[in-house]
Amino acid sequence: MAWTRERLETTVRQRLGDAKLVVAANREPYIHVHQDDAIQCLRPASGLTTALDPVMRACGGVWVAHGSGDADRVMVDSQNRVSVPPEDPSYTLRRVWLTQREERGYYYGFANEAIWPLCHIAYTRPRFDSDDWEQYVRVNGKFAEAVLSEVDDGPAVVFVQDYHLALLPRMLKDARSDLVVVQFWHIPWPNCEVFRVCPWQEQILDGLLGNDLLGFHIQHHCNNFLDTINLSLEAKVDWEHFSVTRGGRTTRVRPYPISIDPEMVQSSLSFDGVEAERTIRRRLGLRNERILVGVDRVDYTKGIPERFAAVDRLLERHPEWKGRFCFVQVGAPSRVHIPVYRRLSEELKSLADEINWRHGRGDWRPILFIHEHYDSDQVFELYRMANGCVVSSLHDGMNLVAKEFVASRDDQQGVLILSQFTGAARELTGALQVNPYAADQLADAMHAALAMPPDEQRQRMIRMQRQIHDHNIYRWAGMLLSDASRLIELRQPEEEAVV
Fold first, then answer.
1. Which CATH superfamily is domain 262-470 in?
2. Single pTM value for the model
């Protein structure tokens, strides 16, 4: 039976019983900002929030997150809560307030200048700073206080998200050993030798072992994590059951490939695809060129310079595409307070200008670099009109752009070019899979996508659409939360024995 929002809701209610569901994540699913003379509620562009919002709509509960909007404080009640989504409230958003120093050290510093490059094999050196670490510890403590106030004294499942909150599980367990704590690590886990360079590796690993269940996208990342524990801590690693026991407590480690809600993507598309395409082409100054698209945050892990280099190589090897093709790259500004990200934005603008100068003719440019945020509806329409989508990540836990592109193709056309270094490559076998470091290979894939016959496009797309329909976001959450519920059942006899 297919997983749907209704099935997830029923499953969670049956399995969790009276246990409260609390999600803890750095990013909030809805943000309030001042615009002109009004306050607007926006949905930030984020793979995590896109994936989890439909889950919370189905399950209810509380989402604890950093309140980062300039009007966020205005919209909360005296307990820092607000009901969301605004048009149909179905769960509670609890906001945590951070000082500028805390945000700079915890988020921009330790999370994104230390852990992020440490876990991604993109050859950017991590930066470890003791003050950043101090703020990371402090902010994890703030989240612990907020979560504990939300669960009060009752039974609860706390679902922790990602690398920003690696210390939170242990803090929660130290305060409430009866809580069921589950964490999903949304980025890759590196091999054990890489992780050993972190000065605070033991504290991070101990924090993660506060979880009852720890999930990664793929089995390979689970293996890397267990290898790291084996090398770094005094703990018992059980390879048969994929678990770690330390201090009498056991953490289960499992793969849960995250996904999307394909029906949500479909419902966001306009009824008239022809008119939508005409509008987009007019706005972007495009005529009848064939289009390949890339949609990413501007991040060094996404392989955007490699993408641009492949466009350059494509036009050198296949000059017949000059004037007949355009690569449209939507690059949302990201982490602009971190120098390496600012330098990457400048590099991309320079690369695009250089390639456009070398190959352009008249008013035709081979690369259109749109350095701004697009909302999800704009992105989905862009996917639907394109001849192909390029996902050339140098290293990625999953990559939901690839799945959203597939879901948007109600015409069963379009070609996905997908890096073999993404988690999605294990599932989307209908894609043209490439090594993004190999410019010739990526250029050949672009040429193949632009020239692929409609029948072959359809066969590949149908296979991928079937995969994301059967393995959607509701299945991901259902499998993970069902496993969490079994931990509640296992714990009940222990509690009765103590009584």
1. Glycogen Phosphorylase B; (3.40.50.2000)
2. 0.94
